[in-house]
Structure formats: C-alpha cells, structure tokens
Amino acid sequence: MIKNSISGKEIRILVKNKNICNMSVFKGRRVIDQIRGRSYEEALMILELMPYRACYPILKLVYSAAANASHNVNLKETDLFISEARVNRSTFIKKLRPQARGRSYGIKRPTCHITIVLKEKSKFFLEKSKI
C-alpha cells in the first residue's frame, strides 16, 4: 500500500507493500542515511551508483514522490530536496522450509515501511533563517 499526502509545499509518501519493502530495516537504513538531506538530483545519482539491492525500491519511491510533487502540486523537480527519510520495522513474512524426515524449518523474512518527505529548497531555508 502506498500512501501519499500533500500538506502545504511538502510531499509525503509511505510504502507498506510487502513486495516492495521485502528487505531488512538495517539494509534500508544503510541506503536512506546516504540520501537524507540531499537534493533530488543528487539523491538519484547516489542511488543509481550504490551497489546495494535496497537502492532500487528506494529509487522507485523517490521517483514516484517527485512525480507526485510535479503533477499534483506543480513543484519543479530541480527545487526539491529530501527533508525526511525513515525506514521503520514491519512484520515478518513467515514461511516453512521442508527438512529431512518430514520436519519443517521456519523462515522469518523481515519487511519494512519506508517514508520519504520532499520539500522545496526555498521554503525550507526561509523557515530555518527565521528561527
């Protein structure tokens, strides 16, 4: 399930789909920590060049959030940056693997929830300067 919410000039996208987020929280956080606070274009370059398997679902998510920002709120993709990025733990997918002598062995596969928030650069830096 993908949830989108638009508040002001902020685009928030949350992915809870087990097929997209079929990775460990630690593997997702390793990638998310590299793009947090970066501009949209810089984050895309980083995600395309990193050698981790977790980069592809996060890349798709950032593309989707930017497309929603340009289509729904009329924001320019060049003015966007990732203001918030989180990876939270979700449920485990439980499977059974057959073993010898009619036994079975349980497999727990971790999943996660990914949240990405995009904001405009100009709005964010104006708010920081007022504080």
TrEMBL record:
Question: Where this protein primarily resides, as one coarse class?
Answer: plastid
InterPro entries assigned to the protein according to its UniProt record, in alphabetical order: Ribosomal_uL22 (IPR001063), Ribosomal_uL22_bac/chlpt-type (IPR005727), Ribosomal_uL22_bac/org-type (IPR047867), Ribosomal_uL22_sf (IPR036394)
Q: Where in the cell is it found?
A: Plastid
Q: Which domain of life is it from?
A: Eukaryota
Q: Which SUPFAM superfamilies match?
A: Ribosomal protein L22
How is this protein annotated for GO cellular component? large ribosomal subunit; plastid
Q: Which residues form a coiled coil?
A: none
Q: What keyword terms does UniProt attach to this protein?
A: Plastid, Ribonucleoprotein, Ribosomal protein, RNA-binding, rRNA-binding
A family per Pfam:
Ribosomal_L22
Fetch the CDD domains from UniProt: Ribosomal_L22
Single GO molecular-function term? structural constituent of ribosome
What is one Gene Ontology biological process annotated in the Swiss-Prot or TrEMBL record? translation
Q: Which PANTHER family match?
A: CHLOROPLAST 50S RIBOSOMAL PROTEIN L22-RELATED, LARGE RIBOSOMAL SUBUNIT PROTEIN UL22M
Protein family: Belongs to the universal ribosomal protein uL22 family.
- What is this protein's function per UniProt? This protein binds specifically to 23S rRNA. The globular domain of the protein is located near the polypeptide exit tunnel on the outside of the subunit, while an extended beta-hairpin is found that lines the wall of the exit tunnel in the center of the 70S ribosome.
Q: How does it assemble?
A: Part of the 50S ribosomal subunit.
User: Could you tell me what this protein is called?
Assistant: Large ribosomal subunit protein uL22c
What species is given as this protein's source? Siphonochilus kirkii
